[in-house]
Specification:
Largest sheet: none
Number of strands: 0
Number of helices: 21
Oligomer: single chain
Helix content: over 70%
């Protein structure tokens, strides 16, 4: 009697293996994982060793990549399919990698494990071949016994000895299993049916076989109630193997006992099939979700990216998509690697373009650095000039060129700006000291200080219209006062705005401390623009202070600092333009 299930194939199912609960090694340190692997090699349970060895290996390389990234030794733009492959392609800086020693140690242990496993598998295969030869010899002896026509007292003990020999022999190659067992069972049944043996002895043997097979039926029926259908299916294969080791039962029980066992088997098979059908549906859904993510990354990778702000924003989109990818389960075994390769290729394409952009951007910043250094040298050559009108125009031209030049490396930006501004300040401060009576900068400073005090001393009437009119009057008077010494302009402007905000908090904040009427002359327009830029700088600096308390805000802070530098540069240009108008 044959069995419908091939236990050699099913018990080694890759899908079934994948569904077994794995130990959680994620909380272990690298050293603990190495120690755990060393202890595992001492385990006599080969199946457990092979299963946990791969789990420890995966956890080790995942943690190794993470800790290297946190220590600044790797690039983590996208993760590889296997942790070991990722670790082998790490991008390290030109400094000693403290993780290399522990990684080499793990590789040595793992190589030893693979060598031991290969040797064990070779021995197992050799033993199966030897077992095949032994079982073929048992079948040959059984065939001879069946063909004998001797007395039962001579043949039955020999038959028992043959059965015992068969049972103690270990497994054979899977390709020979079915045919070998069917041949053995055929001769066993022929022995019982054709050899003239003592009926009582035969009935006793039938009874023992029936009791054993009834027990197998009970176990199979209990397996059908197990919640873990994969485990139940594996146990069922063992019962089928044991069933085949026993001889037949009495003819009247042969069909009923087999039908009972087959019915319990069918229940488990249906549940097992349903389980994998459901898994297949989930894998199909996972493939659809991952395909959509691939399409999103491919779309981002194909975008036109004008500048660094956009690159940072798109990188954040890619990182968010990668996080979503990690939450989605596996696709089918056939499709899983393909869809991962597609996702990885799209991510690589994006980051490759990003690296090319920043490589070009770096070259551009270096060119800008050289241009601004040249402007600093020109400004330093002009700063001692006493040809006030001509040199003022030249400084204004330099400031305009400075503004038009793009960004320079951040580490040198502030120092370079201070150098350029220092040369400008030196010239304008000296020029202010030599100012003509009509350009009384210090007189203007005293007038503005006096106006600030008047604003502070003003007593609100409670009449909104009158107070607003007074505020506008103060603002108009401020605009009519000329320039103050260059080095004092920021301080007096801060005092003026502070006094307005304190005395007229609602209107001053709403109007931004500016005159509500439009500019009447080019000078007034420049002054209003100058005032607005000062207010913008204060806002940017406040925002920098706010973002410094937040994590992952470096890109925003960098953008704000660039805006501050550009705004200050524009202030210098505006100041020079206004001075030129005053001297005309």
């Amino acid at each position: 009697m044959s069995v419908d299930i091939n236990p050699d194939a099913l018990t080694t199912s890759d899908v079934a293996e994948a569904t077994e609960p794995a130990a959680n090694w994620s909380e272990k340190s690298l050293v603990e994982l190495v120690q755990a692997f060393e202890e595992l090699l001492k385990n006599e349970d080969r199946l457990k060793m092979y299963k946990e060895a791969e789990a420890i290996k995966a956890a080790f390389y995942k943690k190794l990549i993470k800790e290297k990234a946190e220590a600044g030794y790797v690039s983590t733009e996208v993760e590889d399919a296997t942790e070991e492959a990722a670790a082998e392609t790490l991008v390290t800086e030109e400094r000693e990698d403290p993780f290399s020693r522990i990684e080499e140690g793990f590789k040595e242990i793992y190589a030893s494990y693979k060598k031991e496993r290969a040797e064990y598998n070779r021995q197992q295969e050799q033993e199966r071949e030897q077992n095949l030869a032994l079982k073929e010899a048992v079948i040959a002896d059984l065939k001879l016994l069946v063909e004998k026509q001797e007395d039962v007292n001579a043949t039955f003990p020999e038959f028992r000895e043959i059965q015992n020999r068969w049972r103690v022999i270990g497994p054979v190659p899977a390709t020979n299993f079915r045919n070998l067992n069917e041949t053995y069972q055929l001769y066993v049944e022929q022995f019982y049916d054709k050899v003239k043996i003592n009926r009582e002895l035969r009935d006793l043997d039938f009874k023992k076989n029936l009791e054993a097979k009834e027990n197998f039926c009970v176990q199979a029926e209990q397996l059908a109630e197990r919640p873990n259908i994969v485990e139940a299916f594996k146990e069922l294969q063992k019962l089928h193997d044991q069933w085949k080791e026993y001889g037949p039962v009495a003819k009247e029980f042969r069909e009923p006992i087999w039908e009972r066992f087959k019915a319990a088997t069918a229940v488990i098979n249906r549940k097992y099939q349903a389980y994998f059908e459901e898994m297949k549906e989930h894998q199909t859904e996972n493939l659809e979700k991952k395909t959509k993510l691939c399409e999103q990354v491919e779309e981002i990778a194909a975008r036109e990216v004008p500048g660094s702000n956009e690159w940072n924003a798109f990188s954040k989109e890619i990182e968010d998509i990668q996080k979503v990818w990690k939450t989605i389960g596996f696709a089918s075994k056939k499709e899983n690697q393909k869809i991962y390769d597609r996702f990885r290729a799209a991510c690589d394409a994006f980051y490759s373009r990003k690296r090319e952009f920043y490589s070009s951007y770096k070259d551009s910043m270096n060119e800008n650095l050289e241009k601004k250094i040249a402007l600093c040298e020109q400004a330093e050559a002009l700063k001692t000039s006493t040809d006030w009108k001509k040199t003022t125009d030249e400084f204004i031209a330099l400031q305009k060129q400075w503004k038009e030049i793009g960004a320079v490396p951040r580490k040198k930006s502030e120092a370079l700006w201070k150098r350029f501004r220092s040369a400008c300040d030196e010239f304008f401060n000296e020029r202010d000291k030599q100012a003509k009576p009509e350009n009384d900068f210090y007189g203007n400073l005293r007038a503005k200080k006096k106006l600030v005090e008047e604003i502070k001393a003003y007593v609100l009437t409670g009449d909104e219209a009158k107070d607003k009119e007074a505020m506008h009057a103060f603002m108009n008077r401020w605009q009519e006062i000329g320039f103050v010494p260059f080095k004092e302009k920021d301080n007096i402007m801060d005092a003026y705005r502070s006094a307005l905000r304190e005395k007229f908090p609602h209107d001053a904040s709403r109007k931004g401390g500016r005159n509500v009427r439009g500019p009447r002359t080019e000078k007034e327009r420049l002054i209003q623009k100058y005032t607005q830029l000062q207010q913008d700088i204060v806002t940017y600096e406040n925002n920098v202070g706010f973002f410094e308390m937040s994590r992952n805000a470096a890109p925003l802070i960098s953008q704000l600092q660039e805006k501050i530098v550009k705004a200050k540069e524009e202030l210098e240009v505006l100041a020079g333009q206004i001075r030129s108008l005053e001297e005309e």
